[in-house]
Amino acid sequence: MLLQVMLWYKRVVNVVKEIFSPDDFTHPLCRRLAQEIFSHQGDITPSHLINQVADSALSSLISSLSFGDSSLKGVDLQKVAIEIIQTLKRRSHQRKIKQLSQMIQNYEREGEEEKVKELYQKLIQLRKSILI
């Protein structure tokens, strides 16, 4: 849905670009679409994008996101984008916390006290950044 909002609302693209890169989109086709959207300066329409891309799968994705679903009509797109971004950030932080916690457990078992302290500090900083 984030890509769908980005296709229609340039201000959302600018906000998303500050937080994410195309590599943050896990599906290869979505990653390519994000690259296309991010690479354009100024206003761009879905029709313009469809005409610019040579890949039929990418054109088809753009078409389905922009013209196939009218569920965004009357919706505050900026609010939707902010909610999506907050959700993605929260999930990202949760993944990082889980990874750090697992690494701490592994190093504790190995008796690597310095590494445990270092990772524990990173975990504290990450948790503090979530609260801010």
Describe this structure in words.
This protein is mostly helical and 132 residues long. The radius of gyration is 19 Å and the shape is elongated. Helix 1 (2-8) crosses helix 2 (10-19), helix 2 (10-19) runs parallel beside helix 6 (77-110) and helix 4 packs antiparallel against helix 5 (56-66). The mean pLDDT is 84. It has helices at 2-8, 10-19, 28-39, 46-52, 56-66, 77-110, 113-131. The protein folds into two domains: 1-73, no CATH class; 76-132.
In short:
With 132 residues, this protein is mostly helical. The chain has helices at 2-8, 10-19, 28-39, 46-52, 56-66, 77-110, 113-131.
Identify the notable features of this structure and list them briefly:
132 residues, mainly alpha, 2 domains, 7 helices, 76% helix, elongated
Topology:
Blueprint: H1 2-8, H2 10-19, H3 28-39, H4 46-52, H5 56-66, H6 77-110, H7 113-131
Number of separate structural domains:
2
Helix and strand composition category: mainly alpha
**Element order: H for helix, E for strand:** HHHHHHH
Number of helices: 7
Contiguous uncertain segments of 5+ residues? none
Sum up the overall morphology in one term.
elongated
Main sheet summary = none
How much helix, percentage-wise, in residues?
over 70%
Number of strands: 0
Q: What is the overall pLDDT average? A: 84
Rg result: 19 Å
Proportion of strand residues:
under 5%
Q: What distance lies between the first and last C-alpha atoms, to the nearest angstrom?
A: 26 Å
